[in-house]
Task: structure prediction
Amino acid sequence: MQRPNRLCGRWRKFGWAQAVMHFAKSASKVVMLVRAGNFAGTMSKYLSERILSQPNVQVRFNTAVSGLDGDDHLRAITLQNLSTGKEETAAATRLFVCIGGSPNTEWAKDTAIIRNEAGYLITGADLLINGKTPACWPLQRNPMELETSVPGSFAAGDVRMGSTKRAAAAVGEGANCITYVHRYMREPKIAKV
Ligand SMILES: Cc1cc2nc3c(=O)[nH]c(=O)nc-3n(C[C@H](O)[C@H](O)[C@H](O)COP(=O)(O)OP(=O)(O)OC[C@H]3O[C@@H](n4cnc5c(N)ncnc54)[C@H](O)[C@@H]3O)c2cc1C
Result:
């Protein structure tokens, strides 16, 4: 008999919804564990309806994994109801954890590159506050699109605040950065007064 696949994590990404639908094609049962109480604000209505209407997908809200058990492979997981604190053990041989991502930008703290609270690099017009460049910005002109708060230093892809977290977007931004680097190298560097 096929044991159910279980997926858990932060359901803020289209990718995780895709994963559930993908596993549902081959698994007898997919149990989706969601720590939040519902999908509100984390997934489009269309996707949540698709998942909730999939016959072999069971969605358990307010649920977290609190333990794993097995020998040479996983055999059971312990689930905790986050509302009541009650735990239960369920047979499972597969657990897929979707944990999202975080930008690896600790290095920026030693530079004048400004990041947001989550660590994403801030670029272009997003650096302006009430239309003004930040104090650390030394040039008269405003930062170019994709330019960080250090002139001539650009950010592309997932690490950039506000970027579309998709492969094609990252590649496109990388290509655009080359154009901006050339522009930066050509321009006269006029200091802010
Ligand atoms: C599970 C999952 C599924 C996805 N599915 C899709 C999909 O179907 N379609 C789609 O378009 N996008 C998808 N994405 C998103 C896509 O992978 C990203 O948008 C894309 O990879 C971003 O490219 P990037 O170059 O900005 O960052 P990354 O691909 O993350 O590349 C950054 C690189 O920098 C390296 N690095 C980090 N810190 C340092 C450092 N200090 N020094 C040197 N190197 C460093 C990292 O190791 C990594 O290799 C998915 C992402 C995930 C996690």
Q: What stands out?
A: The mean pLDDT is 90.
